[in-house]
Input
Amino acid sequence: MNVLALILMILGALNWGLLGIFEYNLLASVFGQGSAVTRILYILIGLSALWGVVMLCNKRIRHRE
Output
């Protein structure tokens, strides 16, 4: 689960980097603008980022103990 979340977070970060630098949306180019697959990937990337925040907070709490 953690590895999949990390892969999705990296994909999302790369997409945002490409969008910011070159105004190129990789996910929309590959899967189609507004397609169901693109929307599902955006949702999964967002959920994986939330999972990453939870994992980071858990690690910090355990580290303090």
Q: What stands out?
A: The radius of gyration is 14 Å. DSSP finds three helices and no strands in the chain. The helical segments are 2-22, 26-31, 36-64.
